[in-house]
């Protein structure tokens, strides 16, 4: 049965999101794949609620329709302007308002810049007005090559900008001082907001140092370390720390503080005589 049969004029709600990041390019051709590689790095670092990451590949038409209903759009692609490899250009989307000549245009020649203009024409009011494009100058696009060093360095800078300007505002705000819980079975529990704000990739390093247990965020599971496992449907997380605290086991609720200089969470470890009293 057609759900819209009784009301054929019912509008379709756009999927929408607060921030859409699209990485364009060909992963098989060296530096041309910087957009999709960047999206993969962002994914490993943790995607806040309200953000969406898309590997746009080389399908410009798909890019146009992915933008439907998004509040802000960031597009990342490679460039070949003759500038020094790794040079980064930040281009406002409104500079790309004109449709390309339609004669001879087909899916294989339909690029991201065409996609922006096409989206304005095809999506109407559902097309975002806040669109930013980051272009990274390539060093080489040889088949099967890895990203070059200058392009990798530039990609990290763009990742930092996207995190600061677009993703960080979507992450929950938590105070510097919070509480954590050490369980009898050797786990450390974090509430959902603290985990999402401080450890978005769900991967951490745990270190005993200076009378404290330090939890250090990692970029993702491929970085090694310990995994924060989802413990509740609400998003509370837990990490197994019993091996690290074998000589100094902790139980119950403890105070923790975020250290901006170390970019890590510090949890005081009471001396044994304090714990025994």
Automatic annotation (TrEMBL):
It is an enzyme of class 3 (hydrolase). Gene3D superfamilies: HybD-like. Pfam families: HycI (PF01750). Keywords: Aspartyl protease, Hydrolase, Protease. GO terms for molecular function: aspartic-type endopeptidase activity; enzyme activator activity. It comes from the Bacteria. Its EC number is 3.4.23.-. One of its GO terms (biological process) is protein processing. Transmembrane segments: none annotated. Belongs to the peptidase A31 family. NCBIfam families: hydrog_prot. This is Hydrogenase 2 maturation protease. It comes from Mycolicibacterium chlorophenolicum.
């Amino acid at each position: 049965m057609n759900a819209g049969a009784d009301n054929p004029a019912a509008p379709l709600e756009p999927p929408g999101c607060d921030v859409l990041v699209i990485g364009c390019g060909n992963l098989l051709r060296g530096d041309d794949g910087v957009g999709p590689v960047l999206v993969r790095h962002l994914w490993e670092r943790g995607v806040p609620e309200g953000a969406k990451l898309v590997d746009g590949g080389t399908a410009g038409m798909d890019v146009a329709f992915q933008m439907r209903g998004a509040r802000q759009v960031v597009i990342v692609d490679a460039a070949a302007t003759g500038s020094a490899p790794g040079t980064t250009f930040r281009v406002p989307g409104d500079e790309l308002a004109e449709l390309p000549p339609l004669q001879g245009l087909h899916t294989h020649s339909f690029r991201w810049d065409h996609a922006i203009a096409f989206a304005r024409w095809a999506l109407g009011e559902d097309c975002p007005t806040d669109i930013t494009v980051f272009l990274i100058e390539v060093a080489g696009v040889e088949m099967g090559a890895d990203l070059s060093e200058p392009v990798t360095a530039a990609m990290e800078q763009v990742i930092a900008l996207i995190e600061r300007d677009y993703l960080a505002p979507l992450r929950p705000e938590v105070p510097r001082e919070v509480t954590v819980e050490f369980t009898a079975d050797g786990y450390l529990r974090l509430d959902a907001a603290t985990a999402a704000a401080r450890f978005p990739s769900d991967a951490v390093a745990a270190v005993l140092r200076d009378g404290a247990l330090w939890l250090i965020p990692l970029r993702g599971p491929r970085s090694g370390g310990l995994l924060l496992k989802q413990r509740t449907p609400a998003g509370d997380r837990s990490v197994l720390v019993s091996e690290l605290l074998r000589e100094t086991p902790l139980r119950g609720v403890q105070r923790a503080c975020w250290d901006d200089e170390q970019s890590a969470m510090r949890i005081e470890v009471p001396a044994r005589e304090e714990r025994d009293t």
